[in-house]
Amino acid sequence: MADTKILQLNIASVLDGTEQVPIVQAGTTVRVSAQNIADLSALNYTPENTANKSVDFTTVNNTKYPSVQAVVGYSEKLANKAVDFSVKDNTKYPTTLAVDTYIGTKVGYTEYVALLTQSDTNAPIATTVFNNTGKAFSFNKADVGSFFVVPDTPFVDQNKVVPQLIQDAMLRNYGAKVVNHMEYVVEFYTGYNNVATDGLLNNTRFVIRIYN
């Protein structure tokens, strides 16, 4: 067997790591196990975890890790983001809020539009159709046919706030105004034949305009 070439040896079956392999170490022939060699080859190497790799930031969570290219692309977008139109150039891109606010300054007002539905003694449910005011609004019930809307940030000048509840049927009485209840809120009411009444709102259009 001493003169047998490697290619003339029998092919090994599946390795289990216990097989002995000769190597030269410091000029001396010694033996190691196949597992020793396998362990050495794994040093400083971690296979890519492709299952948890994210190539963009469309989904934000704690289970994915972004690629280098994804981080570079995302950071470049942040660096080129403009939150207003104070500087006009071709290197920045505006946020949607910046665009809405800018358009609002051109038309003279910003606007909140919602469809309201109210039943029984519940507060109205608002489905937002359009909002470029930069504010969020919460709807509350005060009494029969009486409701109020609270902005998450105060109105700067209540005299420039114009609310409107659009009448959608005959004999229905709707009204809206800005009032001061510790802070300025929008108050509106619903009635039928001049009697305060609940349950009249059904996808009824509600508008708040805030003039510049």
Write the layout of secondary structure elements.
Layout: E1 20-25, E2 28-33, H1 34-41, E3 53-54, E4 65-66, H2 68-79, E5 81-82, E6 93-94, H3 96-107, E7 109-117, E8 125-131, E9 137-143, E10 146-151, E11 161-165, E12 172-181, E13 183-192, E14 195-196, E15 202-211
Parallel strand pairs: 3-4, 5-6
Antiparallel strand pairs: 1-2, 7-8, 7-15, 9-10, 10-13, 11-15, 12-13, 13-14
Count helical runs.
3
Total strand count, please?
15
Helix content: 10-25%
Category by helix and strand content: alpha+beta
Regarding quaternary structure, what we see is single chain
Basic shape:
elongated
Instruction: Round the Cα radius of gyration to an integer and report it.
Output: 35 Å
Percent strand: 35-45%
| pLDDT < 50 stretches | none
Order of helices and strands: EEHEEHEEHEEEEEEEEE
Largest sheet: 5 strands, antiparallel
How many domains? The number is 2
Mean of pLDDT: 84
In whole angstroms, the N-to-C terminal distance is 98 Å
Task: Summarize this entry quickly.
The protein is of the alpha+beta class. It folds into two domains: 52-104, no CATH class; 109-211. Helices cover 15% and strands 41% of the residues.
General description of the model:
Helices cover 15% and strands 41% of the residues. The chain has helices at residues 34-41, 68-79, 96-107, and strands spanning 20-25, 28-33, 53-54, 65-66, 81-82, 93-94, 109-117, 125-131, 137-143, 146-151, 161-165, 172-181, 183-192, 195-196, 202-211.
